[in-house]
Specification:
By secondary structure, this protein is of the alpha+beta class. The protein is built from 20 helices and 19 strands. It folds into 3 domains: 309 residues, Catalase HpII,  Chain A, domain 1 (Beta Barrel), CATH 2.40.180; 77 residues, Hemocyanin, N-terminal domain, CATH 1.20.1370; 152 residues, Class I glutamine amidotransferase (GATase) domain (Rossmann fold), CATH 3.40.50. It starts with 36 loop residues before the first helix and ends in a 14-residue tail after the last helix. Bound molecules: CIS-heme D hydroxychlorin gamma-spirolactone 17R, 18S.
Length: 749
């Protein structure tokens, strides 16, 4: 099978059949009527800016046809180039100016289009009957309305060309083109943040970015300046626990949760407000890579996450997330043992459940990376009526920074006029000028009040949709300090640690060994262990200390909380729905493979939504023992197990004998084992697993010819008589994603 053949046709979704409609005809003036007008309108707007140069004649930017684009104009056959060559000048000037400043953080990313649609009558528990009771934002409440979205996922620290699979927080920024203007929910894949006040952000970023003297390291926190800063900032502890966990190594953007991080406000028609935390929950589960795998991917597939999102959408899948809200009023907020305005805290789901209120579907890749992904500009200050800010000092600071940073990136206040950033609503105001103004406004008047133009554009009263800020009572002295209610830095860090399974805890310890192992200064490592980790959990601190040349602390830290609370929602292992959709499965074979094994496996796995890829030593058709042929998708030079979710070795003695001679095939299996991925083998295929000497794994033996053996995610069947039972067991092993119980100490891969 080639990459061109969609392996899996997603079920036709009735609610979704107009998703790609770009055929015009929508009512551009329609308000919040129950149709997909908004969704269509964004597509139309983008279409009007799309150009397809294919087959057209080459022209200059001023529209003149060009006769030669390879040779510059010269004075004589071998003479100097002449400046009047306008085509040369233009081509070179455009090239010289092809880049804009990369984002100071979140420089590396990718994006996709899609839509958001609220659920009809979502279950909000006992406290609220319906969402209209708490917000007038129809983007969240009108279940007939699909709002177009553009989502950009990103890493934070690395520069634009850095690798995708580094240990880092991931950005999860969504632009909703609503009927009431743009709403940007600019979140991350982790619910807390590093710091409590926007004032500290430049210091945090300076500390984590490459060090200023040598510009090293790229896209990594593993160096002295970051941990120096961290060890002196106990408020960072909770976030550090997340960053050391598998959350910082997402398997795919489509397998990642998203969080609004801050507490926001929802506001209803009567001007009443409740607090809200926003959550994105991926339909495909929340999954991670393992560290060794990520470092190999830096070299073998450094666009791994970017390509992953692009490929699945192009292959016809539609990654989906549920938007959930945690709703709580001021009184409830007062009762928590943390401050909801403190962005280093989350609201535990054990306290306030997440209520799903709608779904987001990503179904279209960008046509032009620069015009869409690079130029999309988010701003947490972009809100619509019904959504408002809290006084979280980090959020308040962001409201300044994003507009400011766009001015730097675009060199113009008109950044919100370009196609990807334009709202679908009409815009009327008195702005007329500035670099790269796109709109051509007619008329004499660009001021207010005016009599010449009937005093247009008119202000809109709140009842008619004008944005009114929530009338929160604020009364205080001007002070520069930190609220006492922001002082507890360890309770939630401990909650996170307590909520991890043992393998997840080990991952955190291993990550700390790597990160702090890269820190030269002993006193920094000591501070991390004694001042931070030992105030989270004493055993944790000792386990970290052992690996980094620091004496283990003898007593728990003075500030270590004693609670044993857990929140199961924090563990990724509890976020593994029973699906293998979009997982990439490698089939290792050579000439002489068992035809039935391959065709049965492929159809069974594809039926479950997996993507099956045939890997062979060299490209070009391979013949099965019974004469079937397959066309390998990748060969050994290009394929590596790190880019797959599981591997299966079908039978066929000639094929397996060839694989046994191929170091790459052994390496493929050994690496998949080391990275705790599902492995399966049928018939003679088991010989390859035996040759690799997977430690402490029970394979189907000759004696139990009929049985399907399943041990630690390794599924084998010697006789291969019951292919149905075999594939069922393999599908189950793939759905589990990783098999943490394996001992991989002796595996050299
Ligand atoms: Fe950002 N952040 N940030 N940030 N952030 C930027 O804006 C900033 C913060 C987040 O895909 C920048 O357009 C400050 C929290 C995402 O284009 C910049 C503070 C959260 C993206 C900026 C924060 C985020 C950015 C760089 C502390 C999670 C990528 C380029 C007060 C809730 C958006 C840009 C995209 C980007 C500033 C903290 C998420 C410089 C000052 C907390 C997902 O404006």
């Amino acid at each position: 099978m080639s990459d061109d053949d969609p392996p899996f046709e997603p079920e036709p979704d009735e609610s979704n059949d107009e998703t790609h409609a770009t055929d015009g005809g929508s009512d551009s003036g329609s308000g919040t009527s129950g149709d997909d007008a908004g969704e269509d309108r964004k597509q139309e707007q983008l279409d009007s800016a799309r150009e397809n140069p294919e087959g057209e004649q080459l022209t200059s930017d001023h529209g003149v046809k060009i006769s030669d684009t390879d040779n510059s104009l010269k004075a004589g056959e071998r003479g100097p180039t002449i400046m009047e060559d306008f085509h040369f000048r233009e081509k070179m000037t455009q090239f010289d100016h092809e880049s804009i400043p990369e984002r100071v953080v979140h420089a590396r990313g990718t994006g996709a289009h899609g839509y958001f649609q609220p659920y009809e009558d979502p279950d909000l528990g006992d406290e609220y009957d319906d969402l209209e009771e708490v917000t007038k934002a129809t983007v969240l409440t009108n279940s007939d309305q699909k709002t177009p979205v553009f989502v950009r996922f990103s890493t934070v620290v690395g520069s634009r060309g850095s690798s995708d699979t580094v240990r880092d927080v991931r950005g999860f920024a969504t632009k909703f083109y609503t009927e009431e203007g743009n709403w940007d929910l600019v979140g991350n894949n982790m619910p807390p943040f590093f710091i409590q006040d926007a004032m500290e952000f430049p210091d945090l970023v300076h500390a984590i970015k490459p060090e200023p003297d040598d510009g090293i390291p790229q896209a990594s926190a593993a160096h002295d300046t970051f941990w120096d800063f961290a060890s002196l900032k106990p408020e960072i502890t909770h976030m550090i626990m997340w960053v050391l966990s598998g959350r910082a190594l997402p398997r795919a953007y489509r397998m990642m949760q998203g969080f609004g991080v801050h507490t926001f406000r929802l506001v209803n028609d009567d001007g009443e407000s409740v607090f809200v935390k926003f959550h994105w929950t991926p339909k495909l589960g929340t999954h991670q890579l393992v560290w060794d795998e990520t470092t190999k991917l830096w070299g073998k597939s450094s666009d791994f996450n970017r390509k992953g999102l692009y490929d699945v959408i192009e292959e016809g899948y539609e990654p989906e997330w549920e938007l959930g809200v945690q709703l709580f009023d001021e009184e409830r907020a007062e009762a928590f043992d943390f401050d909801v305005l403190d962005p280093t805290k989350l609201v535990p789901e054990t306290e306030v459940p997440v209520r799903p209120i709608g779904r987001m579907v990503l179904n279209e890749t960008p046509d032009n990376f620069f015009a869409e992904v690079e130029q999309v500009a988010f701003h947490p200050g972009n809100v619509v009526p019904g959504i408002d800010f809290s006084n979280d000092p980090l959020l308040q600071g962001r409201l300044f920074s994003y507009q400011d940073t766009q001015l730097n990136r675009f060199n113009s206040a008109n950044w919100d006029e370009i196609p990807i950033n334009r709202p679908i609503t009409e815009r009327h105001n008195n702005q007329r000028a500035g670099f790269m103004r796109q709109e051509i406004n007619e008329g004499k008047v660009s001021y207010k009040p005016n009599s010449i133009g009937d005093d247009d554009p008119q202000e809109v009263p709140e009842e008619e949709g004008g944005y009114e800020h929530y009338a929160e009572k604020v009364d205080g002295k001007k002070i520069r300090n930190r609220s006492e209610s922001f002082e507890d830095h360890f309770t939630q860090a401990r909650l996170f640690w307590n909520s991890m399974s043992e393998p997840e805890k080990q991952n955190i310890v291993d990550a700390a060994h790597f990160e702090l192992g890269k820190v030269d200064r002993t006193e920094i490592r000591e501070r991390m262990v004694y001042d931070l980790f030992n105030n989270v959990d004493h055993e944790f601190a000792k386990r970290v200390a052992e690996g980094i040349g620091v004496d283990p602390p003898s007593e728990p830290g003075d500030e270590m909380p004693t609670h044993d609370r857990e929140d199961p929602s924090l563990s990724m292992e509890n976020r593994t729905p029973d699906t293998i959709e979009t997982r990439k499965i490698a089939v290792l074979l050579d000439d002489g493979f068992d035809d039935e094994h391959v065709s049965t496996l492929r159809s069974a796995l594809e039926e479950e939504g997996a993507r099956v890829k045939i890997i062979s030593r060299i490209l070009g058709e391979k013949s099965g023992a019974d004469g079937e042929t397959v066309d390998p998708d990748q060969h050994h030079v290009a394929a590596a197990s790190v880019a797959f979710d599981a591997v299966v070795v079908p039978g066929g003695s000639e094929s397996v004998d060839a694989l046994l001679e191929q170091g790459h095939a052994r390496q493929f299996v050994a690496e998949a084992f080391k990275h705790k991925k599902p492995i399966a083998a049928l018939g003679e295929g088991i010989d390859l697993l035996e040759a690799v000497e997977l430690p402490e794994v029970a394979l189907a033996g000759d004696g139990d010819a009929d049985a399907v053996a399943v041990d630690q995610g390794v599924v084998t069947s010697r006789s291969a008589d019951d292919l149905e039972a075999f594939t069922e067991a393999f599908v189950e092993a793939i759905a589990a994603h990783r098999h943490w119980e394996r001992s991989v100490k002796g595996v050299s891969a």
